[in-house]
Design goal:
The complex is a heterotrimer of chains A (374), B (243) and C (368). Chain A is an alpha/beta fold. Helix content of chain A is 68%, strand content 10%. Chain A is elongated. The two termini of chain A are 26 Å apart. Classes of the chains: A alpha/beta (374), B alpha/beta (243), C alpha/beta (368).
Chain lengths: 374, 243, 368
């Protein structure tokens, strides 16, 4: 125990003496929470739309007004020319256009139905998809409205129509605020990055400057050395999480529905797992540059497969299976469940079990790979 | 049966890196309390041999016993008995003199009182009490190396291994460094030192000459000079190196 | 000139000797494009939902059938009472609960009105909203069908066309983005680190003391990175095109010219950083924070710029990656020519010139 204490003591001396470390510990969380939470928003509003109105009827004007009034769309303008709309779309000045053909209203009333063309710029698949969804929904409502409007002319329809009334409720996030969704995930990212990078770089640095040899000729045991290395960054990781949470609640006013203690309990296990990863990276790198590259590479893959930006359920089967191996995914899922929905230990016990398994197995492999004698 | 005064016994020790044979079948013994010099040009295999004896690298074949312990099975026991000063500077530049001493002494399991006593003794012996709280990186190279040596024997090991301890320092500092080595040797510590400075060879009790992974000669400096009929170790080395 | 190529050759050896870094440099883009192509999608399929049917009649049954056969939803659970909604959301297993009021069919018949509540787990607002839209559209279609049986009535059918990317594949966006990121990584980050390393080791001084012009020394150091980047870009383009069917509709020569322009931009950024940074560590941190972060987050790669707060929009608009991404995307997917892209190209050239002048100035100062 005393040996471990000496390693920890030394690490803290070095960490707090390093001028570069304090900014990393305090500035990175703020930057991440400020930039990432604000930049990383899929919150798609203000889809820019143009309407080609060749009909110029009361119906077409009603539709234009409907798009104009919608929160989701921003009406850039109306035109008579397909060419202008096409060019605007190609130029990126609009995201979609709607073509209302000539005699639209007349044919609609005559045939009781009519078609309308909506062209969406789908280069950005996500945005295209959202634009299509919003439009379909808006058209459904619009149909309802015009039926009302024309019912005064032709009274037969409305009387017999059966109407299903749909009530929308958005639980846990009624304002549909994207930041509430992102911030817990960013906290996980922060903790994971700090722990993995610092652990990996720290041990490789001792390799690079040669002090590791001096340690290796002492009778210190492998586990003592590694425990002494992991504990300081474990403490820093826990501190970062607390610091990040405070910042998040100050800047974004995010409240914690569930138990904060449970989040920290999970973070405690999670940190051991990702530090094990950092340790493993250090055993396969000779220079800090290599360690940095490998850590960066692994983290990018983990982040993409974590459900931070895009939901895991939407991925194809084999990629979903891959995500079961991703420690970051479990923490993001859990922190969102606890922070936003107030889930308890009963709901998250599988997460705990899996993370404990990760922590043990990753560290076992890393310790086995770490050799005092080569 | 080993004679009681043999502390290092090496038999047919070999280390290969792929096809390259860094240490080729060397055998020798080192006696308690002597200063044993390991000489040779850069790349002759001195450091590799020493790293195997310290338990840092595993040999490809051959046997060795350090302080009676086997270098394959009992490396952790060996590590309690030895001190080591590597070619690369091994103190932490961003820690102070006292902090470095405290750290290594702590790892070797010295108690707080022992650490305090050792620190005072060491600083006064080197005459640098006033540098106690200076960062290592602020010290001149000569001081760093003297300090590194003192830290390497902080736990009173039976044997201390020094890998090119005086590289890059001026002759006066080297002389002072050797005073420290003599001092340790007088207290019964066996000193195993590699160097490529031939004048340092004269300070050793016995020396071995390594050329291309093999030990070409091993004896007291005076006897070697006599055998080769020359007056300096430099000339002995040149004769050996030319084959 | 012979000496110059000697230098270039030496640099190549340096890069190719570090196998681990090379594997990462080539492996990273390939794995990333595969992940982006296959895994990263906002398209909803087989989302788990729960049903709370307080009516259990023929109408609710056929609506539930419509929903479950749509391909978007999997019915994970059938609930019995309102209290179970909270529980099932907390386990995180379902994203949406659909509640049919009691006596649904009867109310629809006699009152001509019945109620369905769609409750989404809006912790993820996008998934929540998307699921709501899908569900409500299915229900509205159903409503239209039952009414049509009785008699025809006014109906506008929107015909939606997804231009440029009919299957709405996310990978269309990721190929240009990935090229940009990799070019930044290789050209700016690696160059800045490798130049700073020479500085740290003192070997830069030796090179500069050689009879070659300092300018040529730097050029010879960055040429291998230029070639490496062109190879990696080609690999990404090939995988994107042949594996994921991302079109290359525009002029290939124009595309490569623009790529080369951006490589020069990135290289001059790397050189500029190296003239300022004293240690590799600093160069690394500056590159990560100052280049990678904006390239990934503030360039419109994943997240639309127009939704960001103003300060971030400003950063995005001085970020060369933003312009390059638009250029590559438009050439590949829309087939745009220079007549559409001259503005972006001009801005990119302008930024590059500023960077080159700044790094030459800094370099001179350091030499004196």
């Amino acid at each position: 125990m005393r040996t471990i204490y000496f390693i920890i003591w030394k690490e803290f001396k070095q960490i707090f003496r390093d001028k570069g470390m304090l900014p990393i510990i305090f500035v990175i969380p703020i930057i991440q929470l400020l930039i990432l939470a604000n930049a990383a928003t899929f919150d798609i509003k203000n889809i820019k739309v143009m309407i080609i109105d060749k009909d110029n009827s009361s119906t077409s004007r009603l539709l234009i007004a409907k798009y104009d009034a919608s929160n989701y769309f921003k009406l850039v303008g109306t035109t008579f020319s397909n060419e202008i709309a096409d060019n605007y779309l190609a130029d990126g000045k609009i995201d979609m256009f709607i073509e209302i053909p000539a005699n639209f209203e007349r044919d609609l009333v005559r045939q009781n139905m009519n078609k309308m063309m909506i062209v969406v710029n789908a280069v950005d698949g996500t945005k295209g998809n959202v634009g299509m969804n919003y439009s379909t929904s808006l058209m459904n409502d619009f149909n309802q409205e015009i039926r009302q409007k024309f019912s005064t002319i032709n009274t037969t329809f409305i009387s017999n129509t059966e109407e299903i009334n749909i009530i929308q409720s958005n639980w846990y996030n009624p304002e549909l605020n994207y930041k509430i969704f992102m911030v817990p995930g960013i906290l996980v990212l922060l903790v994971a990055m700090i722990a993995t990078f610092l652990t990996a770089m720290n041990i490789v640095k001792e390799k690079e400057i040669g002090t590791i040899e001096q340690i290796n000729v002492t009778p210190i045991l492998k586990y003592q050395f590694l425990a002494g290395k992991l504990i300081p960054f474990w403490l820093i990781g826990m501190f970062e999480l607390a610091f990040g949470m405070i910042i998040a609640s100050i800047i974004y006013g995010i409240t914690f529905v569930g138990s904060i203690g449970l989040i920290f309990l999970f973070a405690a296990v999670f940190l051991i797992a990702v530090e094990g990863l950092g340790l493993f990276i250090s055993t396969i790198s000779d220079t800090q540059q290599q360690a940095m590259f490998i850590a960066w590479f692994l983290l990018v893959v983990f982040i993409l497969l974590s459900g931070l930006f895009t939901a895991v359920e939407n991925m194809p089967g084999w990629t979903q299976n891959l995500t079961y191996l991703n420690p970051i995914k479990y923490f993001i899922e859990l922190i969102r469940m606890i922070m936003l929905k107030g889930s308890g230990f009963e709901d998250t016990k599988i997460h705990f079990a899996v993370m404990a398994f990760f922590a043990i197995s990753i560290n076992t492999i890393a310790i086995w790979r770490y050799k005092k004698t080569v | 049966m080993e004679a009681p005064n043999i502390v290092i016994k090496v038999e047919n020790l070999t280390k290969k890196f792929g096809n390259f044979i860094a240490v080729n079948n060397i055998s020798f013994e080192v006696y308690k309390g002597e200063i044993f010099g390991f000489l040779g040009a850069n790349g002759a295999g001195k450091s590799t041999a020493m790293k195997m004896l310290c338990g840092l690298w595993l040999p490809t074949s051959g046997n060795a016993k350090i302080a009676g312990y086997d270098i394959y099975k009992e490396t952790e026991l060996i590590k309690k008995k030895i001190g080591y000063m590597s070619q690369k500077f091994s103190l932490y530049e961003d820690l102070t003199v006292a902090e470095n001493i405290r750290f290594y002494a702590g790892i070797y399991g010295l108690s707080n009182q022992q650490i305090e006593a050792k620190t005072n003794e060491l600083l006064s012996k080197l005459g640098i009490e006033e540098l106690r709280n200076s960062l290592i990186k602020s010290l001149p190279l000569g001081w760093k190396q003297k300090l590194a040596f003192s830290v390497a024997i902080i736990h009173d090991p039976e044997i201390v291994f020094l890998d090119e301890p005086t590289g890059g320092v001026d002759p006066i500092t080297r002389r002072q460094f050797w005073d420290l080595i003599y001092d340790a040797s007088n207290r019964g510590v066996t000193v195993f030192v590699t160097t490529h400075y031939m004048d340092e060879a004269e300070y050793c009790d016995r020396i071995s000459m390594m050329v291309a992974g093999k030990i070409e000669a091993l004896d007291k400096p005076s006897i070697l000079k006599q055998n080769y009929g020359v007056s300096t170790m430099d000339e002995v080395f040149l004769k050996l190196a030319r084959g | 000139m012979k000496r110059f190529w000697g230098f270039v050759h030496k640099e190549f050896l340096h890069i190719f000797r570090d196998k681990r870094t090379l594997i990462i440099l080539f492996g990273m883009p390939i794995i990333q494009i595969l992940l982006f192509g296959y895994a990263i999608t906002n398209e909803v399929r087989n989302a788990n939902i729960a049903i709370l049917d307080l009516s259990k009649d023929a109408v609710t049954n056929s609506i539930i059938n419509k929903i479950s056969s749509s391909g978007y939803f999997m019915i994970y659970d059938n609930l019995d009472n309102l209290d179970e909604i909270e529980t099932v959301f907390k386990t995180g297993k379902v994203k949406e609960v659909i509640v049919f009021e009691s006596g649904f069919a009867q109310k629809l018949k006699s009152n001509k009105k019945a109620e369905i509540q769609i409750i989404t787990d809006a912790t993820d607002p996008n998934t929540g909203t998307t699921l709501y839209f899908y569900t409500s559209n299915i229900i509205k279609n159903y409503q239209m069908e039952i009414n049509l049986v009785q008699q025809p009535f006014l109906n506008i059918i929107p015909e939606i066309q997804a231009r440029y990317n009919p299957l709405l594949k996310g990978v269309y966006l990721f190929v240009p983005g990935l090229i940009t990121i990799i070019l930044m990584l290789v050209c700016a980050m690696m160059t800045s680190i490798s130049l700073t390393k020479e500085k740290e080791l003192g070997s830069m001084e030796v090179l500069l003391a050689s009879p070659m012009k300092p300018f040529l020394v730097i050029i010879s150091k960055v040429i291998p990175y230029l070639i490496l980047s062109l190879i990696i870009s080609t690999v990404i383009l090939l995988i994107g095109h042949y594996n994921f069917g991302v079109p290359i509709r525009g002029n290939l020569i124009l595309l490569y010219l623009e790529i080369t322009l951006f490589i020069i931009t990135a290289l001059s950024l790397g050189i500029l950083i190296s003239t300022k940074a004293q240690t590799q560590q600093v160069a690394l941190m500056v590159s990560l924070a100052g280049l990678m972060l904006p390239t990934i987050l503030l360039s419109g790669f994943i997240f639309p710029i127009e939704n960001m707060p103003l300060p971030l929009q400003i950063i995005a608009h001085i970020n060369p990656s933003t312009y390059f991404m638009i250029i590559v995307r438009d050439i590949m997917i829309k087939g745009s020519g220079l007549e559409f892209l001259w503005q972006e190209t001009a801005i990119l050239i302008g930024i590059t010139l500023v960077l080159i002048i700044a790094s030459i100035k800094n370099f001179r100062i350091r030499l004196q």
